[in-house]
Amino acid sequence: MKCIELMKEEHQNILRMLAVIRKKCYAILKGEPINVEDFYKIIDFVKNYADRHHHGKEENMLFNRMILELGETAEKLVKHGMLVEHDTGRLYIQDLEEALKRVEAGEDEARVDVVANAIAYTQLMKRHIEKEDKVVYTYAEKNMQNATLDAINSECEAYERSETARQAKEKYIPLLEELESQ
Asked: What is the distance between the alpha carbons of residues 137 and 155, in angstroms, rounded to a whole number?
């Protein structure tokens, strides 16, 4: 199993969810009521599939080794680029969740914050995924030692066989499909 190829496949699932988020926001702009339950499902997907499952692999298997092996250039790319964007995405999702709670409490104006944070997240992640697919992953594959890439692939393969990874895929891909079908 090639871990980087798997992460690119996961990016496609995340991009599909970003399209769902955009549709939900457009519905809000057209004056439709916010389907709070759907937004909580989206947040669950983002926190557990996109962040814990996917970003966890990047942060714990790839990025740390890039910094160790490739030095200053990789460190700047990872610490001042990718990790900052991961954290910014987490902030948007946290703010989205807070806005949903305010909507549930009857604060109609919080609808603006729902849309603002959801769209900010989608725009950030679209650019982020493009950078990872076209720059970060390519840089890693071209510059890291084969032995390091093999070790990453082995670690990734072991993780993918774990109950945690299996549960993430079994829960969140059907959830994505459910939201897409609406």
From this structure: 17
Q: What is the pLDDT of residues 64-110, one digit of tens each?
A: 999 999 999 999 999 999 999 999 999 999 999 999 999 999 999 99
Helix 163-180, helix 3-29: angle, nearest 10: 30
4-9 contacts: CB < 8 A, separation 24 or more? 4/62, 4/137, 4/140, 4/141, 4/152, 6/156, 6/160, 7/54, 7/57, 7/58, 7/62, 7/132, 7/137, 8/133, 8/137
Q: Which residues contact 36 (CB under 8 A, 6 or more apart)?
A: 100, 103, 104
Is the pTM for the entire model greater than 0.90? yes
Superfamily of domain 3-180: nmb1532 protein domain like (1.20.120.520)
Strand, coil or helix: 182: coil
The domain limits of the chain are: 3-180
